[in-house]
Structures are given as structure tokens and as C-alpha cells.
Give the backbone structure.
Amino acid sequence: MPLVSRAPILALLTALAGPALAQQDAPPPKVSVAAAYSEEITEEEVFIGRAEAVDKVSLVARVSGYVREVVVSNGASVAAGEMLFQIEPDEYQATLDAREADLAKAEADLTLTQIELARKEQLVAREAIPQSELDIARANEAVAEANILAAKAGIKQAELDLSYTEIHAPFEGQIGRIEASIGDLVGPSTGALTTLVRTNPIFVSFSISENQLADIRQAEIARGQDANSPPELAVHVTLPNGSRLDEVGELVFGDNLIDPATGTLAVRAKFDNSEGLLLDGGFVNVAIEGAEPVQETLVPQAAVQQDQRGPFVLLVNDEQIVEQRYIATGATVGTAIIVEDGLVPGEVVVVEGLQRVRPGVPVEAVMAGVGQEG
């Protein structure tokens, strides 16, 4: 039997085993890790809300006439009582003058009837005229007194009509678009001259679910607050550009029934709106803070991954071996996320280098220096 050289076979086995041996000798991959930490968090619920003016009115002419003057401009801020429009007053001034003349005539008639009544009383006392003439004189006096009352009422109505020729702001606020020009014929049926909106303070209305309402009420009752008064919770608003309003609002109204179609309760918060950043009709995000801070476990958001089973993290145990751990997550807090279940403070999770590791492999963990605050 011929002898076969073993050198080529050894060389082949060595070549095949080389990568495996090299992999075994390679150092474990480095990953950046951060420890889960505990922190007091003031929980908040977020809703979609809409700003609503405390007062809003369409200004309509109460008497007919031609516009003599438009004092205000589009979008102007006005004070309560400030004159905005003037309708030509001449016709209404003339009517007032006529009603005052009617009063003067009625007063003169009353004086005459009183003189006549006194004369008739003397004649009846001397039995110079029948009693019926005295009765007529007394009736004439009563008619004259009634005419005076009617004349005074006419004056009051004429004064009102004349006052209506000047249209004043009923409250402080911001004027909308001006719909009338000088010379326009306006009246009660011609539509609004403009709108006036009170911008400070302002309401923000939103809806909360039955469950959220029950949680809020139970928390308030536990702290001894009257269940019939609005909850004493801080309300924050995030503007459409993403910035949070510095002002803190307060709950001032809750409806007295649940909407059966949506299962929600209409709620309203009030804001000072001193900077005028909330506009009537605008949509905003509303956040209600919990009354008491809660101790929560947090990890950096970069550590959390997701698959079909849900969110998970890659955890590095005491032996520097990677483990996969499914967790229940809550709200985000800055760059971190609340872990409601699955982790405890101090456990270490991978935040960088996730693509280089898998469960069961050893790693060299390097603290990232972020996320641990407690």
C-alpha cells in the first residue's frame, strides 16, 4: 500500500480552522452602556385643545343710517368704552328735539288743565255749574299728565336712538376685519360691522375620558379637596410651533355630563394670555400635570428597540454577557423613556453598538456617561 503524505491534509485543516481560532482569540466588542436610573417624575396627560375667547361679539348697528366715521382700524386693540364707528346723528338729533318739544307742549297743557280744574272746583262749590263739568276738568288733567309721561318716554327712546349712532367697544379686546366703510348704509339687518374678541384672559377647551376623570377625581378626594370644585391641577399648553407656553393655566369648568358618543367630558382651562400667543379658534396641545411626583425608572431612548413582541433592551449582566429583556414603556422624558416594568434602577443596557452584539455574546461595556442621573 503506497504511503500518503500528511502534510497537505494538515495544511488544509489548519486553513479551515484559522478563522474560528481567530474569532475565539478576538477581544469582545466594545459597546457603550448606561444604567437605568430612578427619578421623581410629575406625570402628565396630553390632550388636543382649542383656544376660545372668554368674550366674543359681532358689532351690529342698532339704528339705520350712513356711516360718518370709522375710528378703528383692522386688528386694532381697543379699550372698553372706546368709540369704533359713528353713524350720521342728525336725523336722530332732530327726533330728540321734536320729542323735547312734545314734552314742553304737554307740560303747558297740564298747567292749563290745572288752572281750569281749580276754576271749576270754585264754580261747583258755588253751585254755579254742574258736577259733570268738574269731572271733565279732572279727566282733562289726568290726560295732560299722561301726555307728559308719553313725551318723556319719547325723549328717552330718542336719546337711546341718538346714542346708538356711536358704536363703542363693550369690553377690552382685539378688533377683527372692518366690514363697513364711510358712506355705507348700515342697520340692524345689514350684518356685523366687525367682531371684537377678548384676548386676555382666554379659555382652552378639551375633552378627557371617563377613566382619566375618575383618576383625577380620586386623587383630588384623597388630598381632601371638595369633589364639587374644579381640580387644582397645573395645565400647560404647547403652541403649534412646538414651544411650551410659559404661563400655567387652571381648570375652571367641567361639564355636568359625559358625551355618550365619545365617552368624554368637556373641560375648560383659563390662561392669562398676557403675551397674546393664544388666539381664538387655534388648536394646541394641552398637558395636565399630576398633583404629586412619582418615582419612576428611566433609560435613554437610544437603548430601546422594538420587534413584534414589543419594546426591549439589550442588557449587560454581571458576567458581561448580553441579555435581551422585554420591557413595558411609558412616556418620554427629554431623551429618556419611563420603564414601567422589566428593569430596575442600576441594571445596565446597551445604548451604542447595538448592531455589533446579540444575546448570549460577551462584550466589553464602557459607560456612556449619559442617562444616569440618580
